[in-house]
Fold this sequence. Notes:
It is built from 5 helices and 10 strands; from the N terminus they run ααααβαβββββββββ. It has 277 residues and is of the alpha+beta class. It has 2 domains: 3-31 and 40-118; 130-258, Rieske Iron-sulfur Protein (3-layer Sandwich), CATH 2.102.10.10. It has a 4-stranded antiparallel β-sheet with strand order 5-6-7-8, with no helix packed on it. A 3-stranded antiparallel β-sheet has the order 1-10-9. Strands 2-3-4 form a 3-stranded antiparallel β-sheet, covered by helices on one side. A hairpin with a 4-residue loop joins strand 5 (206-207) and strand 6 (212-214). Helix 1 (3-28) packs antiparallel against helix 4. The structure holds FE2/S2 (inorganic) cluster (FES). FE2/S2 (inorganic) cluster is lined by residues 197, 199-202, 215, 217-220, 231-233.
Amino acid sequence: MSATAIFVTALIGIGILVAAGVFAVAWRRGPSAGPIVGEFDKDAAKRDVSRKPEPETTVPPPEAGDDAELPAALEDAREPVSADDLGVTRRMFLNRAALGLFGGGFLGTLSISMLAFFWPKLKGGFGSKINAGPLADLRAQVVPGDGSIQPVFFPEAQAWLVPMGAAELPGSSFEGLPVVAGAEGGEQGLMALWQKCVHLGCRVPECLSSQGFECPCHGSKYNFHGEYDSGPAPRNMDRFALEIDSQGNLIIDTGAVLETPRAVVKTIAYPQGPSCL
Ligand code: FES
């Protein structure tokens, strides 16, 4: 799993925890918080029973146009705010503060997660230019010297590296496209085929016995240059633009996917042996 995926997963996890916290606080502060449990204060009960009811205060209605001051009787009718009332007010404040904190944290986490998810990859990873290593080493792996082809899978680029000679390019479906690197001077060039089947996107494995790529999902088959041979695939396998840097490394531009139509003239024979399907 890439660092970005771990980061996004962690943020989503934090978001879920914060959401659970908000729910827990809201649930606890709700009207169904359960019965009040405590000891019965007998002294307080006796004081309540012995307390005489206070006479009701009749407040005369204000006269029309008289909005200067409150009547004295109304001032006298005011009751001081008790400690309990103050406690309820404080509790409400704390509830709202907790909800605001959790809600703000959740929205903030969600925003950061979305931003991290959609932030363009500026360096490294699929969708950017990927250094596959020295071209000479890759060439030696792909064409071991016994005449066979051993495609090399490069996971970071989701690509199969296959050989392609300069002499095979004219008249091919790739002629004029920047999909072959290292073929100058009669050397064996390389191509990078996207592993994704152009039919419905399954990963296409290589088949060494037939010297081709054969899709296990619906049976599309391609030769080792990724040229269409049979099956429901609508075109050749897609491939990436390539370049070679100043140190001789093969650079696969996974942000530049090039499509080509079904090959009319094949540049390599297929099948050369039994199929893997
Ligand atoms: S996805 Fe490969 S043939 Fe359908």
